[in-house]
Amino acid sequence: MGQLLSATLVMLLVFVANNGMQQTEAQGVTRPYVRPPARKNLELEFSLWQTSTSSATSPTQMHVSLAGPNKMKVSWMTGSRTYNVPAIVRYGTAQGQLTQVATGTTKSYNYLLYQSGQMHHVILGPLADSTTYFYMCGGFGLVYNFTTPPPAGRDVPIKFAIVGDLGQTAWTESTLQHVAGYDYDVLLFAGDLSYADYFQQKWDSFGQMMSPYAHYRPWMVTEGNHEMEYIPLLAPSFRSYNTRWDMPYAESGSTSNLYYSFDVASAHVLMLGSYTNFGVGSQQYNWLLADLKKVDRSVTPWLVVVLHAPWYNSNSAHQGDGDQMMEVMEPILYQAKVDILFAGHVHAYERTTRAYQMNIDPCGMMHITVGDGGNHEGLASEWLYPQPEWSMMREASFGHGELDVKNATHAYWSWHRNNDNEAVKADDVWITSLSGPKSGCESSTEFIMN
């Protein structure tokens, strides 16, 4: 009886919100906001070259990620190559009973004169759904914990936190604090993580900065342009990114850490690569076709895409950066009836209505740009006028997004502006999935091949 009342209440709220939205979404909004002066970059005290054995072997830069059905990956760095710390994690459902043991892999890399510490990646599982596990990296030291996502299921609710273009400023720190105040299940990161920009020690300071927030909930990331760090003949692209952020690409049939997919609760999420080959016939293109053909909307009714360079952008910054990828892949995603596409890159917030080929289309994707995490480059405050018909809300402020999937058909999106020490909800909308029979938008697996 209680579940029936709860479901009825949710549907009533959806009905009221949708009717109100129809009145307010008829015209796009450009919201001016006077941002205080940029905060200074954080100066984090951290070194990978401590001389004591304890500091050289102690885990740092911890983060966890999904690693396939009922599995989680624990990743951490130790500071010296001299001491071979084993890639071992002891874990269990009680802090004093870490009776299970998992082993994994260890990676390191050189970048010009820089030598990384040892990056360890260990997959734990099978794990129970919606359960808190306690774990110990390397088999000794401090005990941490994470909570697994909800079980797979068509009507299973799930909460996503959405960020992009974080960097390492005091605005970044406030964004992370605001995200931590949201009881999310999985964080989706739309690229541009550390803004190390070739200076590898900044990857270490970023790892330390985000560790308190990333070691207890899974972070799923895709690459941005600041992760490339390519130096001809000296350093291949994405060397640091691929070493430190090892995503579950093989589990989804991908051959590259730069694009992959995963299922969680009632959603299928595609993490696409804006900066690796996406042309017709490329490995990413062929993988995308194969992946979408395996999606069963009766099992995962929500279909979400995350990439870096936005396809729909009415800001003067980065105009056209995503056009080539959009030309190739938008028809495929349109036929698959993707619900939402999240992007970063532009340091501002923008939300569109459903659109296709730059026109409003009730069977198209909603595009949401969240490249506003707080990086040192500042905000992109120059908008194009007139505001495109498909652009519903845009504002040049730092912030983060929250996607609260209620059931198989309805989700609630909200964007929260960083306003000094508070997160202020500045935009929200109810979203109806295209998988529902009442959407009038039937998905197809006969994707365009030429």
What this model shows, in words?
The protein has 450 residues and is an alpha+beta fold. It is built from 7 helices and 25 strands. It folds into 2 domains: 58-147, Immunoglobulin-like; 150-439, Purple Acid Phosphatase, chain A, domain 2 (4-Layer Sandwich), CATH 3.60.21.10. β24 (410-419) and β25 (422-432) form a beta hairpin. The longest helix has 23 residues, at 2-24. The N and C termini lie far apart (53 Å).
What does this entry show, briefly?
This is Purple acid phosphatase. The chain has 450 residues and is an alpha+beta fold.
List keywords for this structure.
19% helix; 450 residues; single chain; alpha+beta; Purple Acid Phosphatase, chain A, domain 2; 25 strands; six-stranded mixed β-sheet; Immunoglobulin-like; disordered N terminus
Number of structural domains: 2
Q: In CATH, what is the class of the largest domain?
A: Alpha Beta
Query: Can you give the mean pLDDT?
Result: 89
**C-alpha-based Rg, rounded:** 21 Å
Distance between the termini: 53 Å
Count of alpha and pi helical runs: 7
E-strand count:
25
Helix content: 10-25%
Low-confidence regions: 1-24, 42-54
Strand content: 25-35%
Question: Which fold name corresponds to the CATH topology of the largest domain?
Answer: Purple Acid Phosphatase, chain A, domain 2
User: Largest sheet, if any?
Assistant: 9 strands, mixed
> Based on the structure given, which CATH architecture of the largest domain is correct?
4-Layer Sandwich
Structural class: alpha+beta
CATH superfamily membership of the largest domain: Metallo-dependent phosphatases
Shape: globular
